[in-house]
Automatic annotation (TrEMBL):
Species the sequence originates in: Sorghum bicolor
Binding residues for heme b: H201
Domain Plant heme peroxidase family profile, residue spans: 31-345
PANTHER family for this protein: PEROXIDASE 25-RELATED
Bridged cysteine pairs (disulfide): C41-C121, C74-C79, C127-C341, C208-C234
A cellular component annotation (GO) from this entry: extracellular region
The protein's name: Peroxidase
Cofactor binding, note field: Binds 1 heme b (iron(II)-protoporphyrin IX) group per subunit. Binds 2 calcium ions per subunit.
Annotated positions binding Ca(2+) 2: D250, D273
Positions bearing the site annotation: Transition state stabilizer: R68
Classification via SUPFAM superfamilies: Heme-dependent peroxidases (SSF48113)
Catalyzed reactions: 2 a phenolic donor + H2O2 = 2 a phenolic radical donor + 2 H2O
Amino acid sequence: MKLSAAVLCALVAVQAAALLLATVPSAQAKELEVGYYGKKCKGVENVVKWHVIKAIKANRRTGAALVRLLFHDCFVRGCDGSVLLDASSDNPHPEKEAPVNIGLAAFDVLEEIKAAVEKRCPGVVSCSDILIYAARDAASALSNGHVHFAVPAGRLDGFVSKADEAQAELPDSTHDVQQLIDNFARKNFTVEELVILTGAHSIGQGHCSSFRGRLSEPSSQITPAYRDLLNYKCSQGSNPPVDNNVRDEDYDVVAKFVAGFTSRVRKIPDFLDNSFYHNNLAKIVTFHSDWTLLTHKEALGHVVEYAENGTLWDEDFSESLLKLSKLPMPAGSKGEIRKKCSVVNHRLY
């Protein structure tokens, strides 16, 4: 029986698609390992670090954004680079669009790093691994080297990115302590690790929409002078960003509203340290989810512990970031090495 040219072309296309899908490696195929790219792409970690340091020198906010991206990627579908994907026919509403992900940034830096790595080693290094390397290097730079850990690599980039999943999986800034504890427990993180990771709020910014409720909370939950400062900042636009750490605010603003903290104001912002815990005990933290840690006996004990011992927090934060970076993709997931971090290489369907 002879087949028409059209049918032959269709069969070839189907076979090609099947072959393409068959070559997509399983996310479980490789165990993560330190030095994974030692022979596959020699020097890749140095390339990432060079770009991260360059970006931070230009704008330290970029470092805080990279640290945040690690958490927001890995807490949803594991560390698969899904937070980096732009809207597409396969992912019409990606994680970037979730309200809980407002203000995510540094995507351009990761694309710049990816392009440099692709030029060096085409098709070898995943965007998800690049993100972990970059976040680690940013945390180290912002902490003057006090936060550091060896990154096990070998991750694949996922195909799925859904805003509703991010909204459901990520902790919300309005959550009470038990909601936070339950949220972190679903990812196998303890109360202590919840407190440790929340210490990252010593850097970065939040939008007023993320802490609107704080603007009217009672003095038992927020120092009135700091509440006045937040109200002032949020009146400056429709939904302006506000520094997470009062230490990073404009000196004149702090002097006007919280004069007792002017001695803590730094000319260089986003220094990753244990200042969050001091601020929280003084009730001058931005989010309700920050303050609520003080309402739980064990969590409060850890807040006090890390306020008193910054070196211990540096070490424990490093270990917690490492644990976070090992969160796996959902069982049975497929992955690839993206050519660009914002788009998949091909459609699955």
